[in-house]
Write a structure and sequence with these properties.
Layout: H1 2-28, H2 33-37, H3 39-71, H4 80-92, H5 95-106, H6 110-134, H7 138-146, H8 151-181, H9 194-203, H10 206-234, H11 237-246
């Protein structure tokens, strides 16, 4: 176990060093010149990218977690397969195909991009919410019932805290995927850093390409780190240790 942990840390450190070397090389080689030459355009696209990710992720959270709670109630458990398979369509269908379908009905622009990202990110949150709630020890629920807890109190004080680790993992996965997938919003006129990436591809200009791709990568890594820190705040150390042991 200790050797495996050392190997994992070694891979992470090596990967981090390679990223730093690549970043420094790109910076000194002038590969981010577009950011310095056109800062207003870059920050406009950067803010568009953030807006798409925030709006679509919030919509996914507002839909996926309540639905996950709903289908894990004993009375509605038969509907679990229906909701999970419906959400699964969002990831079974390729991202570009989703964008094309959405664009047919919503036209081009920000709304189409947000809806496509929303469809793409519902499943990880919903699936982990359902898995986390189903994995709560029934003895804990029985004990809460014996203490006179109402169903709402059991959900709030027993089920959700014990399912917090997988739920947070699903949220983290969905948001980080959204940051990368949002680059495809360029294809439906949604803006974002994908404009720089696809312009670089079309013009075969690596300064445009890297000025869009590297910020997207850094943004995904930073958001992942922030969500991992937040996870440590909302999930108890005992639950995190139990989850890592079971993995």
């Amino acid at each position: 176990m200790k050797r495996q942990q050392l190997l994992t840390n070694g891979i992470k450190i090596t990967f981090a060093i390679l990223i730093v070397i690549f970043f420094v090389w790109s910076l000194t080689a002038g590969n981010f010149q577009i950011i310095f030459d056109q800062p207003e355009q870059f920050f406009h696209l950067f803010i568009q990218h953030i807006q798409m990710v925030v709006v679509s992720s919030l919509l996914a959270l507002l839909v996926a977690i309540p639905v996950g709670i709903f289908v894990t109630r004993p009375r509605f458990r038969k509907l679990e397969w229906l909701f999970l398979n419906t959400a699964n369509l969002g990831q079974t269908i390729p991202s570009i195909a989703i964008l094309a379908i959405v664009m047919t009905y919503l036209g081009i622009g920000f709304n189409s991009a947000v809806f496509a990202l929303f469809a793409f990110s519902v499943l990880p949150i919903l699936r982990n919410t359902v898995a986390g709630l189903n994995a709560v020890d029934p003895a804990l629920i029985d004990a809460a019932k014996g203490m006179g807890f109402t169903p709402l109190q059991i959900l709030r004080k027993v089920e959700l805290p014990n399912a917090a680790y997988p739920i947070m993992a699903g949220i983290r996965t969905a948001i980080v995927m959204n940051i990368g997938t949002a680059a495809l919003a360029y294809l439906v006129g949604g803006g974002g850093l994908g404009d720089l990436i696809f312009t670089g591809i079309v013009m075969q200009d690596h300064t445009y390409l890297l000025s869009g791709a590297v910020p997207v990568t850094i943004l995904a890594i930073l958001v992942d780190l922030l969500l991992r820190l937040f996870e440590k705040v909302v999930v108890s150390k005992g639950l995190r240790r139990a989850a890592s042991t079971s993995n």
